[in-house]
Amino acid sequence: MDNPPDQTRRSQQYLGNRGLIVLIALLSAFVPLSTDLYLPALPGMGGYFSVSAALTNLTLILFFLFFSLGLLFWGPLSDRYGRRPILLVGLALYIAASAGCAVSWDIRLLIIFRILQAVGGSAASAVAMAMVKDVYDGRKRESVLALVQSMVVVSPAVAPVLGAFMLPYTSWRGLFVALALIGVASMAGALLLRETIPSRYTGTTAQSVHRLGAVLKNPGFASLLVVFSLVSTASLAFVSASPYIYQDGFGLSEQWYSFYFALNAVGLIAGPFLYLWLSRHASRRSIVGAGFAVMVGSGVLVCLFGSLGPLAFALALFPASLMGSSVRPAGAFLMLDQQKEDTGSASALINCASLVFGSAGMVLVFLFGESLVFGLGAINAAAGVACLLGWAAIGKRRLVKF
Predict the structure, then answer these.
(1) DSSP letter string, 14-66
(2) Other CB atoms closer than 10 Å to residue 120's CB: what's the count?
(3) Which residues of 148-177 are buried (b: 16+ CB within 10 A; e: fewer)?
(4) CATH numbers and ranges of domains, the chain
(5) Among 138, 167, 201, 232, which is disulfide-ready with 79 (CB 3.0 to 4.6 Å)?
(6) What's the pLDDT score for residue 340?
(7) What's the pLDDT score for residue 3?
(8) What is the pLDDT of residue 153?
(9) In 82-153, which residue ranges form alpha helices assigned H by DSSP?
(10) Locate the Major facilitator superfamily (MFS) profile domain: which residues (predicted)?
(11) SS3 of 236, please?
């Protein structure tokens, strides 16, 4: 690694500190923006193309799969070539693919463009978390992670509402045009970005990709990666199943669905702020443990009472949304703290594992057939139990300094 001192933690001449945080938040939001904006249109898209819900759902599932694979490609490369060049290339591909989605006339063509959109968007997420570690240290880093993630989860609240209100005036194609414009806005910020990486990996491109294995050999990082990625199994299961639960199961309109979806998103938004407040009064270890326990209880409530109606379902799931979000800043901070180098590789693995586990949740929830509400509750409860056991094992074996 070379480490030129004049490039270490350079200030952002054009963006400034606040502008950098906003850009990082926007880049981190590419997954929810690219999925949640068109969620209200998902059931109707199946009718438009005259295909099954399972085939339409591939536009979601394959997006997450290839987004995950793209992270493993872009993350290590950002350690080798820098965050800014990787970001610019990825955003260019994302913009072009979003435009391709908007003009697709066949579901299979749409799936292909969604895959390309995922590969391009993954570059944004791969460098976003790495940039936080590049620039911030200690408590400040944890605070920025919480702030960025709270800003990120605004998109699940705003995107479905915006998508639902756009649909009377445009088709699903217009929603993809909106995503292309979001990519353009991100590109403008990336052009103003000053490189953040303090030192670059000096090996070959192939060797930089192989650094993923070196990061995974760190037992502290690997154990935390599994535990905190399990949270995404429950959260993305909800993202995938929510339009069918609210619209097909409860018979709500697209607009009412977006409001109920936003109710759970409020928990996601408040979670990181709740963590920051709790961290002033309790240890990180106890907060995370309590968060996992609440996930279990909330999952049980969904199983027992979620089928009574949309409000009962949303309220029963709310604690899991709140506490599942509140543990994320602590998890990201602890995982990044395990690696002094290979930050891009670590960031890529964190995001990739989250999406892989999340994609599994998206598939698992539909195995319950018409009992989607019960299935979602069961997934939350099971994920919470698994996280609790893993968290206890990490503490017992002292793999991580809390």
Answers:
(1) TTHHHHHHHHHHHHHTHHHHHHHTTGGGHHHHHHHHT--HHHHTHHHHHHHHH
(2) 25
(3) bbbbbbbbbbbbbbbbbebbeeeebeebbb
(4) 5-397 (1.20.1250.20)
(5) 201
(6) 77
(7) 42
(8) 65
(9) 83-102, 107-135, 138-152
(10) 20-402
(11) helix
